Automatic annotation (TrEMBL):
Any single GO CC term annotated in Swiss-Prot or TrEMBL for this entry: outer membrane-bounded periplasmic space
Keywords per UniProt: Periplasm, Signal, Transport
GO biological process: thiamine transport
Name listed for the protein in its UniProt record: Phosphonate ABC transporter substrate-binding protein
Molecular-function GO term, any one: thiamine binding
Segments passing through the bilayer: none
SUPFAM superfamilies, alphabetized: Periplasmic binding protein-like II
Compartment(s) of residence: Periplasm
Family the entry assigns: Belongs to the bacterial solute-binding protein 1 family.
């Protein structure tokens, strides 16, 4: 889940309230039931059928977490190579 908030934008305070609600225990408890989503909070474990089905489908799947320090080392070269290959620059 990615969320962004722009300070000084129109309705900025309401945006902050929305983010706080979306990340609340109450909302995260219902995210799977309402949208087949998975909670991002480690202190929330829904009990609805969607969550159970999604958890079963993900059993044995290993999540890959990049080492961002390694990514940063070659980022400029990777971007240059991407532009060359895609002829986007």
């Amino acid at each position: 889940m990615s969320l962004a908030w722009s300070r000084g934008a129109p309705q900025s305070e309401n945006g902050k309230k929305l983010i706080n609600f979306l990340l609340s225990k109450e909302a995260q408890t219902r995210v799977s039931e309402l949208s087949w989503g998975m909670p991002v909070r480690s202190d929330v474990t829904p009990s609805d059928e969607h969550y159970k089905a999604a958890t079963a489908a993900l059993e044995g799947v290993q999540s890959w977490q990049p080492n961002w320090d390694d990514v940063a080392v070659s980022l400029s070269a990777d971007i240059s190579r991407w532009h060359k290959v895609t002829e986007s620059e």
